[in-house]
Write a structure and sequence with these properties.
- With 477 residues, the chain is mainly beta.
- Among the domains are: 52 residues, no CATH class; 136 residues, Jelly Rolls, CATH 2.60.120.380.
- It has a five-stranded mixed beta sheet, with no helix packed on it. Strands 13-20-15-18 form a four-stranded antiparallel beta sheet, with no helix packed on it.
- The radius of gyration is 65 Å and the shape is elongated.
- The protein starts with a helix and ends with a strand.
């Protein structure tokens, strides 16, 4: 029976089946890699044509249970041979350590690097004196001339110092808003400096006219000895100061003050030197000698308030005789009134007197009294039919004869216009021949022709109250 089994196995393995023949291969040595980091251990190997599961072709792992440990790994400061070179922490990120000789917790000098802190060494290197344990950053500063807190400044903010004020401008007066602590003599005890950027400004400084509170008393440009000038209050704002008030010395006039002190009544803006005198029993012009209402400057026996209309001329007052001089000598309000003709005032078209009606002819002899009689106006009725719509011929005319020698006149004739200003229809200024004439003829068709106005303008002439010209005017054929 055993012989039969062997015979069957021999026939099975030795049959001529090409597809069942396993070709020869060169087996490789594989290293077990338990932590899967790609590196195996030499203590557990296997030979095969293909990589077995959990094996690697590279060996050298010194800790196959830690995937962070294998050849080529960066060395860390952790007490482990991370790169499997049989050395611990030789290439780790070592720390720079500085010796702390005085044991105050702050080091100094050159650094040494290692993963572990050496004895008598610290990480800090800011000790400015590593031989004295009382000197290190943050130490209490004392008034001893030593920089104990390593700030670079000796005796700054000492624990045994005194409070003082900052004195940036070095004028001996401190800025009270900036309080410092220092040793005796390092800052002023006195404050009150109102400008610590200007050494010329401090309490007790000489005040000057510069628009600055030099002495820090809260007032600009004040104080005795100041090169200033006095100013007086001007209560009524008329530009003149109160003579009875006490002046204020200043470099410039304060609000409501002026350099003048001649106002005799600072409660009235109409009372001051040079003001016109009013009839109010007050010294309006502050001349101080009298009330000008009673003054008679021209010595004619009349004052202004008494009725003198010109106190600069003795021949002008209510008792004076009117003269032909273009002055209101008798203060009547009318110039040259004895010589004014019967038609004055007629210096405006609205004041033109009617001197002729219908077909009348008016003959007048107005006077020529100068510029105040530069133009005379007259009105005449040139309508001679009761029916304004009845058409009829008309002729309005005016003529001047006997023009005084040297007198230049212009004669103008205007036709009435009920809807607008009168219309100029004729003019004549050829006064050299001694005669001027104008006329207007037409046919009635409206009310515009029922009135005509005559204007006589005096262009030039001798001053006279007796010179006159002869004017004739009318409406007829």
């Amino acid at each position: 029976m055993i012989l039969l089994v062997l015979l069957i196995l021999l026939v099975t393995c030795s049959g001529p089946r090409d597809q069942d023949v396993v070709p020869d291969c060169e087996a490789s040595l594989w290293f077990e890699d338990r932590d899967g980091d790609g590196f195996g251990v030499i203590t557990s190997t296997r030979e095969s044509c293909e990589v077995p599961p959990g094996f690697s072709s590279v060996s050298g792992d010194c800790d196959d249970f830690d995937p962070s440990v294998s050849p080529g790994r960066p060395d860390q400061c952790n007490g482990i041979d991370d790169d499997c070179d049989d050395a611990i922490d030789e290439d780790g990120s070592a720390v720079a350590w500085h010796r702390d000789v005085d044991g105050d917790g702050f080091g100094a000098g050159a650094a040494s690097t290692s993963c572990a802190m050496p004895a008598d060494a610290v990480f800090d290197d800011s000790d400015c004196d590593d031989a004295d344990p009382a000197i290190f950053p943050g130490a209490d500063e004392h008034c001893d001339g030593v920089d104990e807190d390593c700030s670079g400044i000796a005796d700054d903010f000492p624990v045994d110092g005194i409070e003082s004020f900052a004195d940036a401008d070095g004028d001996g007066y401190g800025d009270e808003s900036v309080l410092t602590i220092g040793c005796l003599g390092t800052g002023p005890d006195a404050g009150g400096d109102c400008d610590d950027a200007d050494a010329g400004v401090h309490p007790g400084a000489a005040e000057t006219c510069n628009g600055t509170d030099d002495d820090c008393n809260g007032v600009l440009d004040d104080g005795p000895g100041l090169a200033s000038e006095p100013f007086w209050p001007d209560g009524d704002l008329d530009g003149y100061g109160d003579a009875q008030a006490t002046p204020v010395d200043a470099c410039a006039p304060p609000a409501g003050f002026v350099a003048d002190d001649t106002d005799c009544d600072d409660s009235s803006a109409t009372t001051h030197p040079g003001a016109p005198e009013l009839c109010n029993l007050e010294d309006d012009d502050c001349d101080g000698t009298h009330l000008d209402e009673n003054v008679d400057d021209d010595q004619d026996g009349w004052s202004v308030c008494g009725g003198d209309c010109d106190d600069t001329r003795a021949n002008v007052n209510p008792d004076a005789v009117e003269l032909c001089d273009a002055l209101d000598n008798d203060c009547s309000g009318v110039t040259n009134d004895p010589w004014r003709d019967a038609w004055e005032p007629n210096d405006d078209i609205d004041d033109a007197p009617r001197v002729a009606d219908d077909d009348e002819i008016a003959t007048l002899q107005p006077t020529i009294s100068g510029p105040d009689d530069a133009a005379d106006w007259f009105e005449m009725d040139t309508f001679d039919d009761p029916d304004p719509l009845f058409e009829d011929d008309f002729r309005a005319w005016a003529r001047i004869d006997s023009i005084p020698p040297g007198v230049e006149l212009t004669l103008r004739l205007y036709r009435n216009n009920v809807f607008a200003e009168p219309v100029l229809v004729d003019t004549d200024s050829s006064w050299q021949d001694g005669v001027l004439s104008v006329e207007n003829t037409g046919v009635w068709g409206s009310n515009d022709g029922n009135l005509h106005f005559v204007e006589v303008e005096v262009l030039n002439g001798a001053w006279s109250c007796t010179e006159s010209y002869l004017l004739s005017m009318g409406n007829n054929d």
